[in-house]
Amino acid sequence: MSDKYNDDIIEEEIQNEDDDNKYESEKFCTLCRRSEKQAGKMIDLPNNIHICSDCMQKSFDSMNQQMSSSNFNYNDLFNMPNISMIDLSSLQNPTQHQKVKPKKKEKKAEPVLDLKKIPAPHKIKATLDEYVIGQEHAKKVMSVAVYNHYKRVATDTMDDIAIEKSNMLMIGPTGCGKTYLVKTLAKLLDVPLAIADATSLTEAGYIGDDIESVVSKLLAAADNDVEKAEHGIIFIDEIDKIAKKKNTNQRDVSGEAVQQGMLKLLEGADVEVPIGANSKNAMVPLTTVNTRNILFICGGAFPDIEDIIKERLNKQASIGFYADLKDKYDNDPHLLEKVTVEDLRNFGMIPEFLGRLPIIFTLNGLDEDMMVKILSEPRNAILKQYQKLLALDEVKLEFDDGALHAIAAKAMEKDTGARALRAILEEYMLDIMYEIPKDDSIGEVIITKEYIEGTGGPQILLRGQEVPLLTENN
Ligand SMILES: Nc1ncnc2c1ncn2[C@@H]1O[C@H](COP(=O)(O)OP(=O)(O)OP(=O)(O)O)[C@@H](O)[C@H]1O
Ligand SMILES: [Mg+2]
């Protein structure tokens, strides 16, 4: 009775399946991909797997064959024409294999910001010290601002006294470490950071990046996690390049208009940003990001702003009792520190823009001593990099003090900040890196002042010679 009942159910299922199949497309063999028309009747397995009788037979044949020989190799099991690599897991779940790998979501689970975990300003600065030489004031201002920013973000819901956001504007000559400082900071704090370049920004609708693209950069840096992005940092470099253009009759789409477009971002607004793209178009999904808790840091070299400062100071100084010599400020190394909002306005920044960047600070130009330190002291100092390279050849590389100062002096002449150091060093190290590997007996190279100044060569010590000579030096 029960058998009869079961048979009925099976028959019914087959009937149903046939009905379904009427609407389905043709079956294909999962192994050799031939259609039912070509390969004949298929054997159906669960999960939509069909195997033609040829393949089934071949499987069994090879299995029998392999079983009988002593070393049974499973890899040969599916060694059949038309089949290259078979992932057995795909047979169990054929549809899953085609799916795009989903974005990591585990990160979302942990709290985005934990007030206790934010390092105190002195700790942030101490870590910055390991990488960035000098710029004490800038490091201090940034450590405090970042610390406060995160305190503000973390207490947002607890406190009804709204703490103002402290967007920053940093000014400093080229190559003094502006970009480097922000990059280092972002590495230390585990927060998403987007570094955008103001030169490529234009008013919406014009060729170039929309202003809002800086927010989508941040969103990308936060793995498309809106909540995380809303607590991130956006660094806009080369901000001086969006100064108002002087004497122009055309619409200033990459200058003043960009400043105006940035106003609402700086202050805090809901912006619609495309996910995974730089510009909005019909094909890209949009999401809303609130910029209220995003810390904006703007940086720029502001070339020639010294002239504006000088002009202002001279004007003040030339009147009445306090009248001064006109060239008093010409060689003042601290001239930039005297910058005011008024000077920036004269440079071409609009007042509304400046008003939204309450913390304005300057970085010093580098002097020779700082250059020497930059060469040798930071964690990834250029000298350490060369020393490491030569150490791989078991050659010791030393620079004497005079050489370091000579390199720094040469870099100072170029007026491009610390960037010049690498270029100069590269020039002198070329011969050394070329010659040293030729001779296995060389154990140590000492770069001397004479070598840098072109009046002599480097000191080269052979292996075995190095110990007595070094003690002599000491
Ligand atoms: N104070 C510093 N301490 C250590 N390294 C520095 C310092 N200043 C500059 N450098 C080195 O010089 C390189 C160039 O500096 P950076 O990119 O920060 O210049 P910048 O101030 O952004 O100049 P620009 O205005 O031209 O963009 C850095 O990658 C870094 O290696
Ligand atoms: Mg820079």
Automatic annotation (TrEMBL):
Belongs to the ClpX chaperone family. Zn(2+) binds at C29, C32, C52, C55. Pfam families: AAA_2, ClpB_D2-small, zf-C4_ClpX. This is ATP-dependent Clp protease ATP-binding subunit ClpX. Residues 17-71 form the ClpX-type ZB domain. It comes from the Bacteria. One of its GO terms (biological process) is proteolysis. The keyword Transmembrane helix does not apply. Signal peptide: none annotated. The keyword Hydrolase applies. It comes from Blautia intestinihominis. PANTHER family: ATP-DEPENDENT CLP PROTEASE ATP-BINDING SUBUNIT CLPX-LIKE, MITOCHONDRIAL (PTHR48102:SF7), ATP-DEPENDENT CLP PROTEASE ATP-BINDING SUBUNIT CLPX-LIKE, MITOCHONDRIAL-RELATED (PTHR48102).
